[in-house]
Amino acid sequence: MTIRTDSGLVAVTGASGRLGSKLALRLAAEGARQRLVVRDTTRAPRLLDGEPLPESEVAVAAGYTDTPNMVRAFQGASSVFLVSAREAPNRVEEHRAAVDAAVAAGVERIVYVSFLGAAPEATFTFARDHWYTEEYIKGTGLKHTFLRDNLYHQGLVHMVGDDGVIRGPGGDGRLSSVSHDDIADVATAILLDERPAQHDGKAYDLTGPEALTLTEVAALLSQVTGRSITYHPETVEEAYASRAVYAAPPFAVDGWVSSYTAIAAGDLAVVSDVVERFAGRPAQSLASWLDDYPEEWDHLLPA
Question: Which domains does the chain have, with CATH numbers?
Answer without folding.
Answer: 9-149+180-206+271-283 (3.40.50.720)
